[in-house]
Amino acid sequence: MADFEKSIKELDEIVKKLEQGDLPLDEMLELFEKGVALSSACNKLLDEAEKKINILVKKDGEILKQEFKGLDE
User: Fold this and answer.
1) Of 47, 46, 45, 63, which is closest to residue 55 (Cα–Cα)?
2) What's the number of CA atoms in the CB half-sphere (13 Å) around residue 33?
3) Are 13 and 26 in contact (CB under 8 A)?
4) What is the model's pLDDT at position 42?
5) Burial classification of residue 72, based on how many CB atoms lie within 10 Å of its CB (0-12 exposed, 13-18 middle, 19 or more buried)
């Protein structure tokens, strides 16, 4: 999860730089592209985490979604 946190921090820094608006256009576009890539990577990590946390249980022909209780519970 360290990659996720690192990416979110970097994305936050990019947003702050872009909000200042005092960068040359080519640098702003480069930062924007990097931000989009980081956002996509973070969404992918979150989707993967959700898949690991949620367990599908088949009961009476229905698929029910249950939260993963973890090893501690």
Assistant:
1) 63
2) 6
3) no
4) 94
5) exposed
For residues 64 and 62, give the distance between their C-alpha atoms in angstroms, rounded to a whole number: 6
Mean pLDDT for all residues in the chain: 84
Write out residues in the chain with pLDDT < 50, as ranges: 73
* pLDDT at res. 2: 73
Q: Buried b vs exposed e over 23-38: b needs ≥16 C-beta within 10 Å?
A: eeeeebeebeeebeeb
Taking the whole predicted model, whether its pTM rises above 0.90 is answered as no
